[in-house]
Write a structure and sequence with these properties.
The protein is of the alpha/beta class and 481 residues long. It folds into 2 domains: 287 residues, SGNH hydrolase (Rossmann fold); 121 residues, Galactose-binding domain-like (Jelly Rolls), CATH 2.60.120.260. 26% of the residues lie in helices and 25% in strands.
Length: 481
């Protein structure tokens, strides 16, 4: 099985270990653990600050934007992503392909494991994956999420649930066709919400094949943000935008949502499940699986499942991997009994809104860097960015037609780091705080501009007055038309 940067049955074994660290996101002070903070709206400027929840440092969440948060028509809010256009042009017909999977009874007979399966979803995308396997092609499996996905505290990186389940898939697929297998991409960044996941998903779900030099699109994508996201309207829209953008990718990947939970019971599962039902995707719930066991006294959250209030221990990660195995077992069974004929079109109406699904990254090469230097960095899945290192204060600038602007940057508890000022069309917009009392190199995300209609904007980013001699690390910039 290659590793990237960032129904019938076959026998395999589950063994997994991991942990997770939580990053604060946004620029506000942290709130209470697991509790979504109240939302706020900048109605005068029609902008929201994306100050997103993290599992053990939930920051203040941005509130509803001009669109509101109810189900509505696509009119006036078309999905403009290039991936969506490519998907629409491609044939949606799928073969009735299936694979053999065999699980032992410890997985298939477990009531806890059975409860984890929320929905198989439409299986047409998986049929396409199975067809590739039967044809001896390698597939790419990508995992997008926070630190549970990233596995920061795992004794070995391959022992997180993502590593174990991808290794299992690699074994199963290779047994069906020895030429097949899995390219594995772990795109987890600790403590980050689906807002950042959306911003970085275009590139960071790709498998970089060092042999061919190609960037390979994912065939299966797992999305895990339930303990990092808030439940405010803006968080719901960002999550739906991420799901829709992922489904719109060029190769029609199968999307499977994973809902984790904190010890205090917090999870954003409720609205995420509604979104999953709206798009008819696969869904797995750790919350539904383990909560009855804990309530009945058969399991303790800390010790039996997790090493603290959030992060799975060896057993917990083994369970999540088993939940994924069970999902594939039941999906293969469904396909064997009643295969789908074609991949369905995406719904024309939204559940909460998908105004950000067309987000595009501004290429670093397109930016006039001013006093910022483009450098190689080591920030989990980010490998390059723009760094200000105490010299000069010429602004970084770029111009484009857009209505929304997202910026990702790093925060440190180090007074050598200062704030960068964002100026749009000659007017001060906000400050990005590179110093935070709770910072430790974490990734923060700011929704800087949230207008309804696109127009040409010129953006300047420079160190704010008084911080000209301080440092700052900018990671990513995204815009929506």
């Amino acid at each position: 099985m290659k590793k990237g940067k960032s129904g019938n049955m076959k026998k395999v074994l589950a063994c997994v270990v991991a942990g997770m660290m939580i990053f604060q996101t946004g620029c506000s002070n942290a709130g209470n653990k697991g509790e979504p903070a109240e939302s706020s709206v900048d109605s005068e400027e029609n902008t929201d600050s994306a100050k997103d929840n993290a599992a053990d440092n939930n920051s203040e969440n941005a509130g509803a934007d001009a669109y509101g948060n109810t189900e509505g028509s696509i009119e006036g809010n078309a999905d403009s992503s290039t991936e969506g256009n490519a998907a629409a042009e491609d044939s949606l017909k799928v073969p009735a392909a299936n694979i053999d999977i065999e699980l032992d009874g410890s997985v298939t007979d477990s009531e806890m494991v059975k409860r984890s399966l929320v929905s198989i979803g439409n299986t047409a995308r998986l049929q396409r994956v199975f067809d590739k396997i039967n044809n001896g092609e390698k597939i790419t499996v990508s995992y997008l999420g926070g630190s549970i996905t990233q596995g920061m505290n795992a004794t070995k990186s391959e022992l997180c649930y993502a590593g174990v389940s991808s290794a299992w898939l690699d074994e199963v697929f290779a047994k069906n066709n020895s030429a097949s297998g899995v390219n594995y991409v772990n795109a987890g960044i600790p403590g980050t919400p689906s807002t950042l996941g959306l911003l970085r998903s275009t590139k960071q779900l790709l498998f970089e094949d060092t042999e061919s030099g190609e960037s390979l699109e994912p065939d299966i994508v797992f999305i895990e943000f339930a303990v990092n996201d808030g439940t405010d309207p803006q968080s719901k829209v960002m999550y739906e935008s991420l799901v829709r953008k992922t489904l719109s990718r060029e190769k029609h990947p199968a999307v499977i949502l994973i809902f984790t939970v904190l010890e205090n019971g917090y999870s954003a599962q409720d609205h995420m499940k509604e979104i999953g039902e709206h798009y008819d995707v696969g869904m797995i719930s750790v919350k539904d699986a383990i909560t009855p066991e804990i309530e009945a006294g058969r399991m303790n959250f800390s010790g039996d499942y997790a090493s603290d209030e959030a992060h799975p221990n060896n057993v917990g990660h083994a369970l999540i991997a088993d939940f994924i195995k069970y999902y594939f077992d039941k999906a293969a069974e469904r396909i064997g009994e009643k295969p789908e004929e074609e991949i369905p079109e995406l719904p024309e109406k939204w559940k909460y809104g998908f105004y950000y699904s067309g987000i595009k990254n501004i290429e670093l090469a397109e930016i006039e860097n001013g006093s910022f230097e483009r450098k190689d960095i080591d920030c989990v899945t980010y490998k390059e960015g723009y760094v200000h290192e105490k010299t000069g204060n010429e602004p970084m600038t770029f111009t484009g037609d857009f209505s929304k602007l997202l910026i990702a940057y790093r925060q440190y508890k180090n007074e050598n780091y200062g704030a960068a000022e964002v100026i749009i069309d000659g007017k001060h917009k906000c400050n990005l705080e590179g110093y935070s009392a709770d910072g430790w190199g974490n990734v923060a995300t700011e929704l800087v501009l949230n207008d309804v209609a696109k127009k040409e904007h010129t953006v300047e980013i420079k160190m704010k007055e008084g911080d000209e001699e301080k440092e700052f690390v900018l990671l990513d910039i995204g815009v929506c038309e």
